[in-house]
Specification:
15 helices; Serine Threonine Protein Phosphatase 5, Tetratricopeptide repeat; 3 domains; about 75% helix; about 300 residues; mainly alpha; globular
């Protein structure tokens, strides 16, 4: 009986090893074929594979291969490859750092209508305090659908930076970015609706946009949404207020707060105590749900993910 069990175990192990080897072999062969094909294929495929090698997504991370593929696609005038290759040169990733060469490649991509490259050029001019030129590049990127640029030009209209102050125009650009799922823009247009800036005041619209932003892990939206649910005569919900204020407090790094933010943080904790007394025994379950949710949805540092790159 024991011999049969051992024999069966060995057979299973050997079979599993064979499956693993075959899978790896197929993946390696497929990767090799894909790489060979990409080196001679259209620039879009080259760029897609290069990004995978750069990030180590589905393939071993390899900056040298990524650079080779980006270069091949860039030589054929593919804007995304020009941009990414330029950013590699500027950061010294895969190459010796060469900012002038990197900037030239990013500008070439921008001239080829790559919206992210146009956004990066806008950042460069804004950092250099050349706001009028920055607006021109942000507008190009925004009109090409870049959400980060839409948010940025909205901010410039709202503040009157490089353009005449115009809150209606600002709200229009914030809405465009928010509709693309940009958490920072969703939070901002939510505040515009809450205060009636550039749009007709609408607390329900405000709560809807803030909830979308909060659900992505954007802490300012979580905190404001909690306050709306506590204090609003229209959308009052003590359970929702307790949930979102708990999530906001859990996601806040107190060490990074300034004096005013610390005072508001303490106010939020007092609000939670007040809500806890109002909710009674229900508070425990809501608090547990908030803690669980916060663990599964950590705070986001960059609301737009890949759109948050800088170009100094």
């Amino acid at each position: 009986m024991s011999f049969r069990k051992i024999g069966l175990s060995v057979i299973i192990v050997v079979a599993l090893a064979a499956v693993v080897w075959l899978t790896i072999h197929r993946q390696t062969k497929a990767e090799s074929e894909h790489l060979s094909k990409a080196r001679n294929s259209d620039p879009a495929a080259q760029t897609e594979l290069a990004e995978k090698y750069l990030q180590g997504s589905g393939v071993p991370k390899n900056e040298a291969i990524a650079a080779e593929l980006f270069q091949s696609a860039a030589d054929r005038g593919y804007p995304a490859a020009e941009r990414d290759l330029g950013m590699m040169y500027m950061s010294g990733m895969g190459f010796a750092k060469d900012e002038s060469k990197g900037e030239a490649l990013v500008r070439r991509a921008a001239d080829h209508n790559d919206s992210f490259a146009q956004f990066l050029i806008g950042n460069k001019y804004l950092n250099e305090k050349n706001e009028a030129v920055a607006v021109e590049w942000y507008r190009k990127a925004a009109e090409n659908g870049n959400a980060a640029a839409q948010l940025q030009i909205g901010m410039m209209y709202s503040q009157g930076t490089g353009v005449p102050k115009n809150q209606v125009e600002a709200a229009n650009w914030f809405t465009k970015a928010a509709e693309q799922g940009y958490a920072d823009a969703q939070n901002t247009i939510g505040q515009f609706y809450l205060m009636g800036i550039g749009v007709r005041r609408d607390e329900t619209q405000a709560a809807d946009w803030l909830r979308k932003s909060a659900s992505q892990g954007y802490v300012p939206a979580q905190e404001l949404l909690g306050r709306i649910y506590k204090n609003s005569p229209i959308n009052r919900s003590y359970s929702d207020a307790y949930f979102w204020l708990n999530v906001a407090v859990l996601n806040t790094d107190v060490s990074k707060l300034n004096k005013d933010e610390r005072e508001r943080f303490q106010e939020d904790k007092q609000l939670l105590d007040d809500l806890k007394s109002k909710l009674g025994s229900e508070a425990q379950a809501i608090g547990d749900r908030a803690r669980s949710w916060a663990k599964e949805h950590p705070a986001i540092n960059c609301p737009g993910a890949s759109q948050c790159a800088s170009f100094n």
